[in-house]
Design a protein that fits this description.
heterodimer; A: alpha/beta; Alpha-Beta Plaits; 4 domains; ten-stranded mixed β-sheet; 13 helices; 20 strands; B: mainly alpha; Na+/H+ antiporter like fold; 18 helices; globular
Chain lengths: 402, 372
């Protein structure tokens, strides 16, 4: 069952789209109107726990459609212990977005019309693509970068006068435009690919350094951080590691091989010298060799793969959460298959002009906080020896993806 | 005054050759050889001209330098494991070549000539057909690179072993170019890592630092090879391979060096080859070029059956045909073999004629077969 809190315009529109739903509304006059229109309505204050004890909340979807974030969050606190299947909210102000996120609430923040459609989309999870017409009342005159469609959705195109435009952050919407949006779990993965971060500590002397970085990353991207380390000869998994013993490389690799796909990112201390990794490990999760950074103000993404999307997704995700990211394509042909990537205030795109190896090394030596590259390394002329130099001989943290 | 006229004629031929080659759809190199032949026939100049011989030698050195530069070592390393049948093809083809040269009672160096293939022909033909990035194209390129690398090494080895020596040191000294090559390679890689801004100037400098540097490397290695008792062209080839390996493909720099090489120096070598053919015409028999043409085709087409399962018949046949085309390295090898005394001047001219015919015949056949 779906329980909609708030019987305003957004709440009604969602109720029209859903079959099995109840609206909770505290204004008696609005309740009467809704009943007259044929909706199932419960009158009461949703911030009070006693109200929720009267409703079968367990395994229901709670849709918070009031126009007040503080009220929404208060309701969420009251209801979340009753084990609803999911809580989805219409977010009025972006400053509360983090709080919603922290409470595990899926949210949408872009005006009433789009919010109702998107919330419906999130609940139903049936349709992946839909369109929103821009009118004077909703988004005409709004910059695309100011339009937040939530974690699970992304704008992929804008129709204007028969032409298709790519969604550039500075694009200003006009009346008559049609926004094309796709939604899905994988979109969330693109926007924030990390829910679970695993820190593997091999050398005790590096613990403080890598923990500092892993802790900072997990805090900023709002991911859970687990620490895998050796203690009294046993491998332990915990939130805090008091005592750490030296872990052999083979042991670490065995752990990586045995890990299920639950982990989104593995962070570890860089090895002392070049080691042989099975590339299959990187196909399952990216590995970040941490240098103790607490923030990635400058990021360099090297697109050294014929399948650039993976590098680009991580690059844009990190740029969303951290600082500026420079994306270096090694071959202009790669741009033909990477049409989704666009420049923005945080993402700068460049293509190497004369020799990728020399140009990338020159860039790496500028001292980035984070370098991202692909293990496949099938585009460009950077050889393994230099990729290892990026890991072993720079002060940058290095993220290696599939 | 006469020297000025000679220079003018040569540079005019060098200028006109690409234009004519485009019109008649024949490689410019062949036009230059034919023009050299006709020029010698018409004027009777050049044979004793010192400057002509000097520029021709520089042209040959440049040709070998560019042959080394063109080899894409990253492609060899990347594809070697996946395209395991390509090294098998190259090995079988080489063994067949050596066997045939022995069966025909020819010097072992003929085995190298028969096995050789011209990257200078293969690359433009593949680009023209638009199949460079296909699996067929990549395998063809890998086979060409590998063959080039192996044949130039064998050529140098044979040249050194046939040289008259007075002490064992004279046999060991030429090998010393290998450590010099390894040292220079690691020095180059060190410089890229520690001084990337400086190394970037090799490619992006208004004063063409890259061309100057490459030219210096080419001359130093050629000179070193000469001092150590090896062939200058081996030094030049290694210099080209060195630049290619350090930078993992020379890219834009290669274009500039090609411009200098093929635009200025290399035409002298090919025109001189034409002139030599004219002056040795009395020593030529049709037998040698014909035997080499048939044998050269056989040693390439028979092993290509290895690819019978993966290539369609047209591509299978086309692969063998294109691998049979000869050009620069065969001509350079013949020049070396003649200078050391392994073959006679008449044989060198016979090899030149075989080269010219193969460079004309096989690319044309390839176009017909693959298009069909």
């Amino acid at each position: 069952m779906n329980i909609i809190v708030g019987g305003g315009r957004v709440g009604r529109r969602i109720a029209e789209m859903l079959e099995d739903c109840i609206i909770v509304e505290r204004d008696e006059r609005v309740c009467r109107e809704l009943r007259d229109e044929g909706f199932n309505v419960i009158h009461g204050d949703a911030t009070e726990k006693s109200l929720w004890e009267r409703i079968p909340v367990k395994d229901s979807v709670i849709i918070l459609a009031t126009n007040d974030d503080i009220t929404n969050l208060e309701i969420a606190r009251a209801v979340r212990d009753l084990e609803p299947r999911e809580i989805v909210a219409r977010i009025e102000s972006e400053k509360y977005q983090h709080e919603y996120h922290r409470m595990g609430i899926r949210g949408v923040t872009c005006g009433k019309s789009i919010a109702s459609d998107l919330i419906h989309e999130l609940i139903e999870s049936r349709r992946r693509y839909f369109e929103i017409a821009v009118t004077e009342k909703n988004f005409a005159g709004v910059r695309l970068s100011d339009l937040n469609v939530g974690d699970d959705c992304t704008i992929i195109l804008i129709y204007r006068e028969g032409k298709i435009f790519r969604p550039h952050p500075d694009f200003i919407l006009e009346k008559g435009d049609v926004i094309g949006i796709i939604c899905g779990r994988e979109i969330k993965k693109t926007k924030n690919p990390f829910d679970e971060i695993l820190l593997i500590v091999r050398h005790p002397e590096n613990y403080q350094t890598v923990f500092r970085e892993a802790n900072a990353v997990s805090r900023i991207v709002d991911a859970d951080l687990l620490i895998l380390h050796k203690h009294d000869g046993k491998i332990l998994c915990s939130f805090h590691a008091d005592r750490i013993e030296e872990m052999e490389l083979d042991e670490a690799i065995d752990i990586l091989n045995a890990l299920e796909d639950k982990v989104d990112l593995v962070m570890t201390d860089p090895p002392m010298a070049k080691v042989e990794f099975d590339p299959k490990i990187f196909r399952r999760f990216p590995i970040l060799f941490a240098r103790g950074k607490t923030y990635y103000g400058e990021i360099l993404a090297i697109v050294n793969t014929s399948n650039p999307e993976v590098v680009l997704n991580y690059a844009t995700s990190f740029a969303n959460y951290f600082g500026r990211c420079r994306i270096m394509f090694l071959d202009s042909n790669q741009l033909k298959t990477s049409s989704s990537i666009v420049e923005s205030p945080t993402v700068e795109i460049s293509v190497t002009r004369f020799n990728p190896l020399v140009e990338v090394v020159r860039e790496v030596k500028k001292g980035y906080d984070l370098i991202i590259f692909s293990i496949s390394n099938d585009v460009g002329n950077i050889d393994q020896e230099f990729l290892w130099k990026f890991i072993l001989e720079t002060e940058s943290s290095v993220l290696v993806v599939k | 005054m006469s020297e000025l006229i000679e220079i003018s004629m040569i540079v005019l031929i060098a200028f006109a050759s690409p234009i004519v080659s485009q019109k008649v759809k024949v490689p410019a190199v062949i036009i230059e050889i034919m023009a050299g032949f006709l020029l010698a026939m018409a004027t009777g100049f050049f044979i004793e001209s010192e400057w002509f011989n000097f520029f021709s030698t520089i042209g040959l050195i440049f040709l070998m330098f560019l042959s080394g530069l063109e080899i894409d070592f990253s492609l060899i390393l990347r594809k070697f494991r996946n395209y395991w049948n390509v090294p098998v093809y190259v090995t079988v083809s080489l063994l067949l070549s050596l066997l045939i040269s022995r069966y025909l009672g020819l010097n072992i160096i003929y085995g190298v000539f028969l096995a050789n293939v011209s990257l200078g022909i293969v690359m433009p033909v593949m680009k023209e057909a638009g199949i460079t990035d296909t699996e067929f194209g990549q395998k063809t390129l890998l086979a060409t690179f590998l063959t080039d690398l192996i044949t130039i090494s064998l050529l140098s080895g044979i040249a050194v072993s046939f040289k008259p020596t007075s002490s064992p040191l004279e046999l060991i000294l030429p090998v010393m170019i290998v450590p010099a090559f390894v040292f220079a390679y690691y020095l180059g890689r060190y410089l890229i890592w520690h001084f990337p801004d400086f190394m970037a100037r090799f490619f992006d400098d208004p004063m063409e630092l890259g061309v100057r540097g490459s030219f210096a490397i080419m001359i130093i290695f050629s000179g070193l090879a000469y001092i150590l008792g090896s062939e200058t062209i081996l030094g030049a080839f290694l210099a080209g391979a060195l630049v290619s390996m350090i930078f993992r493909g020379a890219g834009k720099l290669e274009e500039s060096l090609m411009g200098v090489g093929y635009g200025i120096f290399i035409p002298f070598f090919f025109i001189k080859t034409g002139v030599d053919i004219f002056y040795r015409i009395s020593e030529i028999t049709l037998y040698l070029p014909l035997v080499l043409l048939i044998s050269g085709f056989a040693v390439k087409i028979i092993p290509s059956l290895i690819f019978a399962k993966e290539f369609r018949p047209a591509h299978l046949f086309g692969f063998g045909i294109l691998q049979s085309s000869k050009l620069g390295l065969t001509l350079a090898g013949a020049e070396i073999a003649k200078n050391i005394g392994i073959i006679t001047a008449g044989e060198a001219v016979g090899i030149a004629i075989w080269t010219v015919i193969s460079a004309l015949l096989f690319p044309t056949l390839f176009r017909l077969v693959v298009r069909a």
